Amino acid sequence: MNEQRKDILDMLAEGKITAEEAERLIAALERAQPPAAASPAARPKGKAKYLRVVMEFLEDGESGRLNVRVPLQLLRAGVQLAALIPPQALQRANAELSKSGVPFDLTQLKPEHLEALVEHLDEAVVELEQSDGHLRVFCE
């Protein structure tokens, strides 16, 4: 609860304002609050539009920042385009991925699997704190 809302409720409890006045003040506070102030946890489930990766770090004594925002629709389009790739090309790509140490089978990438992944990503928040920086991965 923010401080202004608490002050309004305190004034109501002390009898300094009526319930109707408190309601009007709280409504005015909510209108004045920018939408970006809402936390990712306050967003309704299943409404994620972006995968965010935010990293702040120190390197050679200088601070740096990485802020990546990937539209989930781009991921969906990529999976649908992957369905158009001939099986021989997928086999060659899998072989190259495996040779590079990435055990990922592109033939198993299906749109229905992506939707399940997106649904689970919507609930996930990954945070890593270290002395030289921090990383946060989440959906918004």
Automatic annotation (TrEMBL):
Residues 3-30 form the YvlB/LiaX N-terminal domain. It comes from Nonomuraea turkmeniaca. This is DUF2089 domain-containing protein. The lineage of its organism: Bacteria, Bacillati, Actinomycetota, Actinomycetes, Streptosporangiales.
